[in-house]
Amino acid sequence: MGSLVQRLITGAILAAVVLGALLLLPPLAANLLVAVFLLLAAWEWSAFVTPGRNGPRFAYTALLGAALLVLATVALPADGLRALLLAGLAWWAVAFVWILRFPTPVPTAVVALAGALTLLPAYAGFRALLSLPAVPGAVPGAALAILVLGIVWGADIGAYFVGRRIGRTRLAPAVSPGKTWEGVGGGVLA
Fold first, then answer.
1. CA distances from 173 to 81, 99, 170 (A)
2. What is the CA radius of gyration of the chain?
3. What are the residue ranges of helices labelled H in the chain?
4. For the chain, which terminus, N or C, has the lower number of CB atoms within 10 Å?
5. pLDDT > 70 fraction of the chain, expressed in percent and rounded
6. In the predicted model, is pLDDT for residue 151 greater than 80?
């Protein structure tokens, strides 16, 4: 139970920080906060690329950090944003098929590219949402970003609690033994 309480406290603090930042900070500062979170995610992803080797992990994180900086400072044309988001979507489709064939060896370069195709489109999408102008009668970009986060958080929370409570049928035991089909249902319902 202690682990659950710790998760809930950590989640509540992070949610408060993120929601407060999205609602109260100017778009540039909110964009920087999102970039910092994705830079931390890049560090975590780097452990998949070069496990146990800090030098290459720093290099990978710095490379993705430089790409995030470019995305943060360069105005992407609509076609460029669309192409980046489609590349991310294509990666998720490939990843789904790949997981179905698990276990398969994954070359290090592909793991590194997968991190970029996961994190960079996520940043570009949030930046696009946060830069939407506040137009009377329209939902502001920060509210849309919070909606996206709420959907993800809600699905994750629903999957966790339903899976822990009634989960019996393993979803993909070789990939993630703790995930269940009942948890998937809980995530969808949430």
1. 36, 11, 6
2. 18
3. 2-24, 27-49, 54-73, 78-100, 108-130, 141-166, 181-189
4. N
5. 97
6. yes
